[in-house]
C-alpha cells in the first residue's frame, strides 16, 4: 500500500461526529508498560510486556453552535464517566480506525496573538488501551430499514485468527423503536455466519458501545466481516470499528 496523507479523516465522540470542528490530531498513542526481567546470566536486557494503555488528543476550533455535534456542546461537559472515541483514517469501507474507551481529562482554551481560539482535548484509555481495527461501515452508514452491510476483507494471510475480537459502535441519529447491530464473518465473502456474542445492545438513541470476546478468548474470526442490522426503525446513522485480535492477551 502506498503512503497516505491524513486527509478526509473523521473523529467520533460518544455518537457525535465532531470532525468538522477538529483541526488536528495531536496524539494517537498505544503505549505498553514493560518490566525488566534481566537475569544475571544474560548479557543483554530482557523485558516482559505488561499493560496496554492509549490516548487520543486533538485540537478543536471554537464552535459554540446549536447543532448537536458542534464541538463545544459535545466537549464542554467534561464528564467523569467514560467516553468512546474513534479516529477514522479515512472513511472508506475497510479503512483503518483507532478506538478507545477512556476519560476526557481536559478542555483547554488557547487564544493566540493573532486572535485565533482553539481548544485542546486529551483522552486517556480506561481499562482496554487503544485498539486499531477496520471500519465495517464507510464512515457513517445511513439505513432506512434493517439490512446487511458489505463484506470487508480483514486480511488474506492468515485467513483467520483465533485470539478473539472487539468492536465499537457509534449511533449518530435514530428514529424508530430500536436497532441491533451485529457482526458476521465469512471465509469467502459469500456465506456469512454470526460471530458468537458479537451483537451490540439494542440502541434507541444517539450513543456508543464497546463489546468484546474477552481477554482469554480463542474465538476464530475469518477473513471477511460485515455488519447486519435488525429492528424497527425508519432512520439510523451509525459507524462500526471492528478489531480482530492477531495476538493473545487483549481485553
How would the blueprint of this fold be written?
Layout: E1 10-13, E2 16-17, E3 22-29, E4 32-36, E5 47-52, E6 55-61, H1 71-75, E7 83-88, E8 96-104, E9 108-111, E10 117-125, E11 131-135, E12 141-143, E13 147-148, E14 152-153, E15 160-161, E16 165-186, E17 193-199, E18 207-212, E19 221-222, E20 224-244
Structure write-up:
- By secondary structure, this protein is mainly β.
- It has two domains: 122 residues, Elongation Factor Tu (Ef-tu), domain 3 (Beta Barrel); 108 residues, Jelly Rolls (Sandwich), CATH 2.60.120.1110.
- Helix content is 2%, strand content 53%.
- The chain is built from one helix and 20 strands.
- The protein has a 16-stranded antiparallel β-sheet that branches. The protein has a two-stranded antiparallel ribbon with strand order 4-5.
- A hairpin with a 6-residue loop joins strand 16 and strand 17.
- The longest helix has 5 residues.
- The mean pLDDT is 94.
Q: Give me the CATH fold name of the largest domain.
A: Elongation Factor Tu (Ef-tu), domain 3
General form: globular
Helix content: under 10%
Q: Number of helical segments? A: 1
How would you concisely characterize the structure shown here?
The chain is mostly beta strands. Helix content is 2%, strand content 53%.
Short key terms for the protein model shown above:
1 helix, Jelly Rolls, 16-stranded antiparallel beta sheet, mainly beta, 251 residues, Elongation Factor Tu (Ef-tu), domain 3, single chain, 2 domains
Amino acid at each position: 500500500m502506498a503512503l497516505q496523507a491524513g486527509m478526509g479523516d473523521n473523529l467520533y465522540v460518544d455518537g457525535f461526529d465532531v470532525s468538522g470542528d477538529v483541526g488536528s490530531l495531536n496524539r494517537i498513542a498505544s503505549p505498553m508498560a514493560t518490566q525488566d526481567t534481566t537475569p544475571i546470566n544474560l548479557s543483554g536486557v530482557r523485558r516482559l510486556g505488561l499493560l496496554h494503555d492509549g490516548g487520543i488528543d486533538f485540537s478543536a476550533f471554537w464552535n459554540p453552535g446549536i447543532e448537536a455535534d458542534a464541538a463545544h456542546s459535545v466537549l464542554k461537559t467534561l464528564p467523569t464517566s467514560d467516553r468512546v472515541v474513534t479516529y477514522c483514517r479515512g472513511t472508506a469501507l475497510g479503512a483503518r480506525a483507532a478506538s478507545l474507551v477512556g476519560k476526557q481529562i481536559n478542555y483547554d482554551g488557547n487564544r493566540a496573538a493573532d486572535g485565533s481560539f482553539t481548544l485542546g482535548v486529551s483522552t486517556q484509555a480506561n481499562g482496554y488501551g487503544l485498539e486499531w481495527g477496520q471500519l465495517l461501515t464507510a464512515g457513517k452508514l445511513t439505513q432506512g430499514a434493517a439490512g446487511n452491510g458489505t463484506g470487508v476483507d480483514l486480511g488474506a494471510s492468515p485467513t483467520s485468527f483465533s485470539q478473539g475480537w472487539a468492536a465499537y459502535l457509534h449511533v449518530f441519529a435514530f428514529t424508530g423503536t430500536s436497532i441491533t447491530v451485529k457482526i458476521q464473518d465469512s471465509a469467502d465473502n459469500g456465506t456469512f455466519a454470526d460471530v458468537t456474542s458479537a451483537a451490540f445492545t439494542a440502541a434507541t438513541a444517539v450513543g456508543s458501545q464497546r463489546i468484546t470476546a474477552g481477554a482469554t478468548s480463542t474465538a476464530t474470526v475469518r477473513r471477511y466481516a460485515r455488519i447486519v442490522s435488525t429492528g424497527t426503525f425508519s432512520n439510523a446513522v451509525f459507524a462500526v470499528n471492528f478489531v480482530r485480535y492477531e495476538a493473545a492477551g487483549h481485553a
